[in-house]
User: Fold these one by one.
Assistant:
Number 1:
Amino acid sequence: MSTPRIFGDYESKWQKAWDEQGLYHAAQPGTIEAKEKFYGLVEFPFPSGAGLHVGHPRSYVAIDVVTRKKRMEGKNVLFPMGWDAFGLPTENYAIKNHVKPQDATTANVNNFRRQLKMIGFGFDWGREVNTTDPAYYKWTQWMFLQFFKSYFDESTGRARFVEDREAPVKGRGERGEGSGDTLPTTHYPLPSARMAYKTTTTINWCPSCKIGLANEEAIGGVCERCGSVVEKREKAQWMIGITKYAERLIHDLSTVNYLERIKKQQIDWIGKSEGAFIDFKVAYGQRLTVDGGDAVRVFTTRPDTLFGVTYVVLAPEHEFVSKWIADGVILNIDEVRAYQQASAKKADMDRTAEGKEKTGVKLEGVSAINPANGEEVPVFIADYVLAGYGTGAVMAVPAHDERDFAFAKKYELNIVEVIKPKRDIFQAKYSLVKKELESLGTPIENPEQEKDWQKKLDEEFNGFCKRVELGEICWPHEGSLMNSREFNDRYSEDAVAEITSWLEKKQSGEKTTNYKLRDWIFSRQRYWGEPIPIVICPSCGYVPVPEEQLPVLLPDVESYEPTENGESPLAKIREWVETTCPHCGGKAERETDTMPNWAGSSWYFMRYCDPHNDRAFASEEALKYWMPVNLYNGGMEHTTLHLLYSRFWHKMMWDLKLLPESIGPEPYASRVSHGLILAQGGEKMSKSKGNVVNPDDVINEYGADVFRVYMMFIGPFDQPAPWDVKGIEGVKRFLDKVWRLFEIADSELRIADSGLETIYHQSVKKISSDIETLAFNTAVSQLMVLTNAFTDAGGVPEEMVEGYLKLLAPFAPHLAEELWHTLGKGGSVHMSGWPTYDETKTVSASFELVIQVNGKVRDRIQVPSDISEDEAKAKALASENVQKYLEGKEPKKIIYVKGKLVTIAM
RNA sequence: GGGCUCGUGGCGGAAUCGGUAUACGCAAGGGACUUAAAAUCCCUGGCCCAAAAGGCAUGUGAGUUCAAGUCUCACCGAGCCCACCA
């Protein structure tokens, strides 16, 4: 063997060889090779013009290591890769550089593929998918149509086909012409009962990208992509009814193995809160109550504070405001209108800029009636009430809500505290009386007397509860807002339940559950996305494009610029837009909106199962075999977007029986997340700071194996880690050392030292379990320990050579394969089986027994591993140094921890 | 403001159940080899002390325990996420 060469010819040589051998080919079910499966998945990248970022490979190498181990263990492994290639960056690039988005995508994909291949991943490249490929997006469009043709069945809590009301659903991909849709498509606007529906909503409009954004993409009122401040606009948009699945998206998390913080973030995002709707009848002008008039419906999680309501607040956008203006019941119209306009503009600006100062305007001429006690309270509009949450109206309880309190203080409104009937208040009172009596010299010893007191207490308590029910108990409170501890102390679930059922009896409210999650805005007014396969017919309404006409191809266009009025560039291509209605044959137009780029990524893991199927998105057989994904890794930034959307998408498909029942409603059995790779010094890598590390440079300098091992060694996988040029040098030295080890081994040096046996078996054990728990950094460190041991011993014992190379193989696949073949081994190390260990051999013959006196280490002695407890204690006591500390006294207690220590307590 | 995560050498970080704190790597100092350099190899390495013995050390302060980086409470600090969600 020549000089150590970690990078160079042999890496590309093996990459080529593996490719030709089809080493990473995942066998389809039904074939001989299809054994027990393992599906490892990494998020497919968006192929940007900038090329691969070092952050990508951290995730890919990790799952590559896991799947390589699984493959060696004899599993039939699916580890695929593809391209999530629709999206704005490509479109913007195309506009700027006057190229076709298609061409830019192809170029970027080729570059990404080249970069990934250099790293030596075990991807099954035969399964590569691309969301912009018509053969792929045909099925994205097809799925959209399935959602359009289905509705949410409240009685079963599952989505089902509209035609399901009359006829059973046919199999996947076989829903041909003439499938009778019994829910007419002629409804305009469409009933939102459908899973996919079009409706006019206020959308987040990015003036820079000229695109409508989902709520998830406009966090903090800022466009997720370009950082521009978003505006509110009214627009007809396609929506998908994810809110119908809110409960199941929370509930089913208990059936999967996700990192706790991922579960928590999803639950928080869905934002479930239990409470009640309460109706406040409205009184106009002089008339106190109006039967059959408007009632403002508010949402509250604290119906038990109803007696503390001193005013009602509507969001400035609330429909009643304009209605009341039109009806002429509002007396201060100018002031109200001015406030509405101001707050509409304010939504466009950074909200935190104005701090949390609360503003609002009283609606003169209107008041609301508290259904609990008939009290008339003023009505305000204020932008601290959000139009999009709950009912867009709240009952204000300044004594128990900080925001209401701040507002009430500013506008000098009443603050009324609600006292809850809490038993401990009475208990305290009872104790006081008892103490007082005792201090007067009349101790209560008589048990009868004690019972009597208890009885009185109960009576008084029950009477108090009654008065609360009648709405009598609430009285003005002059103090400031209670601190939160006091507030929570007084909170009572019973009181909430009681008041809610009372409201329901009176028909002025109902129990409800509210979610922060909004329906998914599915329309984008851009070119580079899947066209929504719908035809708009003046007489039939929204008509689905017949399935045999899919895909609806993106037409070639001259210019990709979106229009100023917010229409998609597709709208400018009249010959594409103009079509005939598939339903009535009359003149009609195509839908010009395209789908968000979350569409293609919501189901790509299904396509990988059977990527070349042209009759279905995947065969039932393939789905049954491969799904669910065993291990899915991706960034935390996708927890509330992609991860939630794809879980939801999978559930809809499963409900519609488009997926095999047996795979269950959850697509991913396990989801983990990697930490960011930071620049040297701990800052985020960014182009503007010029601290971006290019994987190409690293691989050219050090080779793929060094890059891979360093990626795994850099730190705990789920935590951020700063890139360190010196650190990678250390890894290079390590792999050089491995190489040299075999130069020695090659010279026929044989080691017969059983001292190596222990460390070898320990290493097999530790590395095996570390890969399972994704503790890659300690797995690499154990490989180093083992390598150092071999180096110190002067070589690798013959019987450990294969096992050692196998342990190395998932991390440094090229080096392991090269050495495997240099040593004359047949086949491929990557198919050679995972090494086993003998538990009894992980324990050495002797160990260092630590002896402590009062918790401090006083001596260490070498003893045989099978030493008995009594022997160990005796040896410990016999130690000279221990004797010194005992000072001839008898120890109080002696504790023996097997295989570790003896501790003597004085 | 709320939630989550975390504070261990000069640095990245180890440390199953509470049981030898600082594995592994980097950087540093010293030495060997070499005309020299690179590469490689060997030695040293938490702090106090000349050394030994001993003492002090896992953000700070208490507590539980024979024994605490690990458990409990309080405080200080950092990072991430959400943020007027009624």
Number 2:
Amino acid sequence: MDRYEPLKIEQKWQKIWEKEEAFKASEEEGRPKMMLAEMFPYPSGAGLHVGHVRNFTIVDVLTRFYRQQGLNVLRPFGYDTFGLPAENYAIKTGTAPQEVTKENIANFRKQAKKLGYAIDWSREINTSDPEYYKWTQWCFLQLYKKGLAYQKESYQWWCPEDQTVLANEQVENGKCWRCGHEVEKKKMKQWFFKITDYADELLDEIDNLEWPDKIKTMQKNWIGRSVGSEIEFKLLASSFSGRSSRPSSRGSSLSPRSDCGFPSKEALTSLNSITVFTTRPDTILGATFIVVAPEYVGLEYIVSDDAREEVMKYKAEALKKSEIERQENKEKTGVFTGAYAINPATKEKIPIWVADYVLAGYGTGAIMAVPAYDERDREFAEKFDLPVVEAELIDRDLYGAPKVMYKMRDWLISRQRYWGCPIPIAYDKEGNPHPIPEDQLPVMLPEIEDYKPDASGRSALAKAKDWLKVEIDGEEMTRETDTLDGYACSSWYLWRYASPHDTEAAWDAEAIKYWEPVDYYCGGDHAVAHLLYIRFWCKFFADMGYLPFREPIKRLLYNGYINAPDGKKMSKSKGNVIDPLDVINDGYGADTLRTYEMFIGPYDLDAAWDTRSVGGVYRFLNRCYNLQEASTASNAAIRNKTIKKVTEDIHRYSFNTAVAALMEYVNELYKSGAEKEDLVVLAKLLKPFAPHLASEMLERLDSDDEWPKWDEKYLVADTVELVVQVNGRLRAKFEVPVDDLEDEDKIIKMVLDDKKVQKYTEGGIKKTIFVKKAKLINIVV
RNA sequence: GGCCGGGUGGCGGAAUUGGUAUACGCGUUCGACUUAAAAUCGAAUGGGGAAACCCGUACGGGUUCAAGUCCCGUCCCGGCUACCA
């Protein structure tokens, strides 16, 4: 008996695959393709963790499965390298992020190769490579040209720890997604992508995607479409506080979304009404007061002189409150503005209040409060003793104009950080932005000495004096010092995979048309952010004529986490981290690690690591390796059954039961003895999970790796087991010829004549039910 | 608070369309090999009972010849979301 030495076998095959460039893919017109990818990793200094292995192995199992079925398969790989960890490390140690990133990539590559993934290594990409981010900048310019990249001043989330603004999607529970520090609101001029232009399409096409419902629902909720009305409430003239600049007869109404910029002075001085958004215009007869957000843009023009001091104090306090404080304290607060408006339906004079339970960023920042129908309004009315009127409902469209609102905001992309893709913009002496001409791309990220950001609201790039100067059309300009949100870099990388070395374009039209959209995309993170952004860019570039499809990802597999043996999240500080490279080097090898992580449980659920079960998988592979050929056996039935089971299980991503089926098969073969064909089929079915061992077995058997097909005729046995229940309880089993199942009378007679069955049926039989498909008889007595 | 998952042996889990609950693996016990151990191989393994049998998929009801699976109610766990008018 040979000893199974995984490390030796694995090294041998990894060398062969490397030398042969075994997984290099190229377009072949007419040959069906398959493109698969994982969410590319951020190459951290810690190297691969078991979560990466699960994620990458799922993709690899599918990759090899479809390769063995003869499809033209592309499985590329890349690195998402811009971001805070490398920069923070640079600040701490003075090592350039460029250097650290290079080392980390080299380590990730080495480790991924040790796991035997069927990657086309000629297509490696890295988002911080100027050859790559040149085209990220090009993408930005396309959006800019169409007005979908724009600047505006507004209150934004600011992380005082990381000294940068954050997108809404990067604020979790009022805390920074990276460092966990509480975020603040800060008024700043920032760059945005106008994702809201695509809100409707992003929402409507979700239902057509083969994605997990969980993700689809999260995206729907994030976009948050509400259908309602905007209704104008005229301000009561007498409520104005004798300001000299009276609203003119050409007065206008404001419907400001506070994050959409600031209205002109003229608009404000002519303010004579408030527009509210409501999903219940039919309840307007019960609207007994109006509430505006503390940040409401027209607030100081509405407020009466008597109330001014108190209102401004309330506003200042509300702005100071952190998001956490606002969340923790659900107790309603607010103050009366001293102003009144007219309810257009009842013609009654109703008071205008300011309260922080109304959000500035949603709708118009003002609501009509209907305490009889809305719980929050009722709470507020009760606390401040405002009238509650149980009014009847009316026709929705009588007093307002239908309007659709979204929770989703535009995507804030400026980051006041060094280690990111420079935004290809420069400013003239008047401060007007100008795009960097495409032929001057890439705007290189300069090497600097001091990476530390400060509270100035500008990135460390502001200190790179030479780099700041740029000449456009003969005019001296100053570069933008903010860098792009890393999510911008990852919003188009899947298309770069089609032609990763293209120097003429971000992606090659022909190559894209052949390979994409991506057939399978696998990851366990970024349910809304990345997966929404990439859909947005896809739709935009489709509109520009650069992409021949409007959804970038056909099928999404969202895998669960692997936790520590104690069920808790793995973390360095808890000291419960399992290093996948240790598992390999301990002698188990990559095949065991891969197969174990597929066997650990359903791919989409979290699972806890169990070191002893790793040994069980190793024993299984060892048994595969040592299974000897015996000439006498005939296992066509179990063999074909196993082919079918494994094939169908992989198709439905039930990797754990596919491995279990292979274990059963091997157990069976050890009992009955294996034919050569059994060994060949075993190796072929095993290959997606344990490719090195399977390759070794196939070489020994002198076989190719073509995926086997099953023949239904072997799955039909001569005899079947007939189950007999009495009142639903299992009482007897009979081995009967399969043909007898066609003759119900004969079967029932045979069963009722049986002594063992008669023991239960002495008292008389009410009826018998024969279920041919289940090979089951139920006798009711 | 709202929405979505989930609750099955000592443990991870299986049961795909309402039809034999607990596949496969771990663990445990016993046996073989060995001076011994490891490794490996074989057998047993939901609970109760001497047995016939009985009880068992969070809990309480219901539908059905038949329920882990469908319906109603309750409890617990996880995720997302969180004053979005």
